[in-house]
Known about the structure:
Elements (H helix, E strand, L loop, with lengths): L1 H12 L4 H8 L5 H14 L5 H22 L5 H22 L1 H9 L8 H31 L17 E2 L4 E3 L2 E3 L2 E3 L22 E3 L25 H8 L7 E4 L7 H6 L18 H17 L10 E5 L22 H14 L4 H8 L23 H28 L5 E4 L3 H4 L9 H7 L3 E3 L25 H14 L5 E6 L14 H13 L4 E4 L23 H4 L10 H16 L1 H8 L5 E4 L2 H6 L3 H13 L5 E4 L1 H6 L7 E4 L7 H12 L3 E4 L23 E4 L6 H11 L7 E6 L7 E7 L5 E7 L5 E7 L5 E5 L4 E3 L2 E4 L4 E8 L1
Parallel strand pairs: 4-11, 5-6, 6-7, 7-8, 9-10, 10-11, 12-13, 12-14, 14-15, 15-16
Antiparallel strand pairs: 1-2, 2-3, 17-20, 18-19, 19-24, 20-23, 21-22, 21-24
Helix pairs in contact: 1-7, 2-3, 2-4, 3-4, 4-5, 4-7, 5-7, 5-19, 6-7, 10-13, 17-19
GO molecular function: hydrolase activity
InterPro entries: Class_I_gatase-like (IPR029062), GH (IPR017853)
Organism: Colwellia echini
Amino acid sequence: MxxxxxxxxxxxxxxxxxxxxxxxxxxxxxxxxxxxxxxxAETDISAQSALEQxxxxxxxxxxxxxxQARAKNIDVAREETIVWFSEQFLKFANWDEANPKAIEMxxxxxxxxxxxxxxxxxxxxxxxxxxxxxxxxxxxDVLGQELRGEIKRRPVNKVDWQGTKASDNMxxxxxxxIFPYDYFSKxxxxxxxxxxxxxxxxxxxxxxxxxxxxxxHDRAINSFLLKEDGTFDQDLMKELTDIPDTNxxxxxxxxxxxxxxxxxxxxxVRKGRSLFTGFDIDNPLVRDVWGKIIRETGELTKGKKxxxxxxxxxxxxxxxxxxxxxxxxxxxxxxxxSYTVNNFRSWLDNKYAGNLNALNxxxxxxFTSFDKVEIEIPIDPELLGQPIWYDWSRYNMDxxxxxxxxxxxxxxxxxxxAATHIKVMPRMFMxxxxxxxxxxxxxxxxxxxxxxxxxxxxxxxxxxGKSSEWIEKYAxxxxxxxxxxxxxxxxxxxxxxxxxxxxxxxxxQWRDLDTRTSxxxxxxxxxxxxxxxxxxxxxxxRDPDGSPEDRLEGELDxxxxxxxxxxxxxxxxxxxxxxxxxxxxxxxxxFSEEIIELREQKxxxxxxxxxxxxxxxxDYMTKGSKLYEELxxxxxxxxxxxxxxxxxxxxxxxxxxxxxxxxxxxxAEFAALQSYLNAGGTVIVDAKSLLLNEYxxxxxxxxxxxxxxxxxxxxxxxxxxxxxxxxxxxxxxMPDVAITEDNGEAFKATTWRTVKQSDGSYLVNILxxxxxxxxxxxxxxxxxxxxxxxxxTSNTLSSTFELESEGVLLLEVKPQ
Length: 816
């Protein structure tokens, strides 16, 4: 698809004439205005390519229509963005055309494109020009509809980049909720005041040191700020202190490198390093160095706008410690320090309450004391499910949580109000492996904001042997976004949720040169609906003249080879994608209050999650996601519970808990479920769950109903049976608005959310993840008729209507 559609798009474009644009423009403008626009274009751009000429004509048409709209007090912020991106990408296309070798190199660094790099580089400029024509054509069409009174759009609610403030669980701009947006790693080397980079179109969050894989002395809060004599490098510190206190933004603690003077004092300091953490987090000198850096930078930035979106404590942390893992290529956890070993021994002593015999029985060892315990790291994955695997995996999680607790405590010791989050990779929760040392729940509980870099796949995986099973049913991998966000929002419902590197547009595993704008709209809408408060997309790497930013020019040799190939096929080559990101964020921010209402609903049905089973089994999330998918399309939000959620949150915020595929739970987890039942809760448990403890030893105790309701499923119960029983338990919590779907398939692919308004009407959001257009029928459960209004266009819909694949609707439903 990537290799062929670019050629098809260009070939189609060459068939276009300026007459097409003139014909479209006469729908609103007088013929005279349209002719004048063409004549001006012809005199100004005679030396330009046919496609650029076409785009320039379209630009003049749209600009003329915008003048008409302003005269009628119609908001044209959306069109201003279309114009800006059109101008930018026409410039970019000319740069790409003038520098074919540079573009060939860019394609060559991504192995998926490398074989066709010459052809792709030659086609790219006209591909970009054609996509500019496409967004202009659509812009002319939509604005024309509004000028003719066929639709009425809500004016854009822009982000106040100077005055946006963080509240408890959302950002506020001009008295309303707001969803800030930007791009990760804005072109390095450009000043933070450059409006070609920081503006409403690309986003204008100040980036205080979020650089991609920087070398030692880059502009980040890093280990090199502190010198051996205990003083700070003031030249490096200026990169932080010279940030203008104008726009809101965020700061990174970049913990990848370590100075040579530290390594000389502590030869073990790089043992136990990981891909993006370049040192041993258990090392006392490291903690001394970083404690000083955190306190100093926390003091210097106290109250600054650049920290309004918080401090990111780490970039994609993980410590995979199993043999054969891909991270070993980057020397991740290929050995551990004496500090880590000794801390593990102390952890074991505490875990086993000093009972060495119990440890030796579990491990099949004969250690004479806890001080003599040894373990081979990286650990053999053949040990998965055995006590030694559990103990190490659980400790690896606890030690990383301890490191981030240390970082946050140091920051809060000098700046108690500093917001924090961690760029947690969703794979740490969504994938089956648990050897990476990240407890997603614990870190979401720890930090003041929830942080991550959630991704989706807009098309099939480009890496050989990687699964794209979802494509058999859906237009894109919505589940990666939905399940992760529902878990994080269940753990931390009252915290701001920040995606500091959203891989919705491309990643190392997928990209598509002709990405669908419908996908872009749907995935950003879904993530925001389910909790995302701010996002920084991957990634913006164009300098204002169109060239790739400095680090992506010339011969590339990055520590992480993924960066070199990231430019090819990214949104930096796709005007339609980059424009659509801003357009959907404009719409989300224009309806921010409605989105928040839809988001902040009771989650009546909860899925029990146990890190204990996840550590001990090889398919926990694979199985769990199947049940989640089965329940997702019923019109209400799903949630999760854990031991901590049961113990710390109001249990009345859900009606029932499903315990599915949880054979291994600790006694504390079991006790939490029993306490929920004792208090009157409802638990649905399958025949295989709760039978074993963390060491796969049989549990004698059985759940008892107490004051609650206990439903024990027979061993033969499949997902359909579990779903039927679960829905019966929350029948009185089902939404008042019901939607039936005919999408030509035997499964559902359309989801909806409903909120009743104070005037008796309903706010309804509908998303179609299916590959086909869905025929939908909307009814009220009480049988009353209703009028339905599309809030995006102000047009009326009948009760039966169609929603295209990846379509998004926001409706007002008024009972009659």
